[in-house]
Amino acid sequence: MESDSNKNEAEIIEKVREFGVNYFKERYDADVEFTEFNVRPPHIDRSVGMQGHIVGDEEQHIYLLVNYVTYEVIMGTAPVGFTDSHPNLKEDSVN
Question: 94, 77 in Cβ contact below 8 A?
Answer without folding.
Answer: no
